[in-house]
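Board notes (copied after class):
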Amino acid sequence: MTTRKVYIGGEGKTKRIAIGGNAPVTVQTMWKEPIAGLDNDPERRADLVRKIDSLQMLGCDILRFAVPDIDSAHALTAIAAKTTMPLVADIHFDYRLALECLKGPVAAIRINPGNIGKREYVEAVVNGCRSRNVAIRIGVNTGSLPKDLEVLVENEKIGRAEALAETAAREAAVFDELAFNQVIVSMKASSVRETIDANETFAKKYEIPLHIGVTEAGPLITGIVKSTLAFSTLLSEGIGATIRVSLSSAPENEVIAGREILYECGKRNGGVRIISCPRCGRQGFDVHAFVTRWQNELLSLDKNITVAVMGCVVNGPGEGKHADIGIAGTGGKAIIFKKGKIVRTIDEKDADKVFREELHTL
């Protein structure tokens, strides 16, 4: 489904990214620690900027930060000035925090107009964003429904998915009245079905680009399963301009999961592909340890290659014969193979060193 195009970023060092229209689907995550005070702590701020750069190399396009107080707003503007990744300020309740964030190169503001309060407060945020050419994301979830819709849901007059879509429609109407169209909408539930239904309902009526995600999806495995089911359904229907895999896990895992889902759904091309065996009683090489050591480094490479990590030399080169490079081992030895052909046989203790040498030849 075709939506209008919304742009975020582009000020200072920040990359300008298109969301919606024919633009590629982007991957988002959210920083999971408080940032208050970082504007007055150059060492901590530099460390965070390095971590942001690492997330970007993994495939993260947009990073959101909670801004619960004025100190966090000051910190976010300081961080945004130091990185090329578009940063989003997540604002609840106090519109003045959004206005404070707009004093720096923050790429977008996430608000729920329903909890901002008076119409004049929403107008102040819109006018501030308009003057700075900053986009707004409307965030709606099942915990922030208007009272009248909550009553209808409780009385089983409508379902939660319908209530989510109606809430988003009401919020979007406010921005239409203010002639502000640089808007992205998200409707999230912890239920896969409700998330799908809400986004399908909204997408049939509006050309606003959608950020999709299953909120509070759970720990690593549960969250990835839920997100994969929801995203694969919606993306196959052309719904979803940007995604976040919400996990009770590290931001890095959210980014990796997101990029893999997009790849398997045909929405992302290129990059490093890792294939690895699950391990069995024939194991002669510690696949799990090697993948753990190498995963983030490999996925951060600007290469379009497939890497195989296999547990034994019996099946390794054969099962990974299509890989550009692979490693397997047995009996204290490791082999490096390319396109199924063994190119190096080495002591296992030298596996990382030699693998890196061969990797750099690609």
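Comment from the instructor: The chain is about 40% helix and 20% strand. The CA atoms of residues 284 and 312 lie 5 Å apart.
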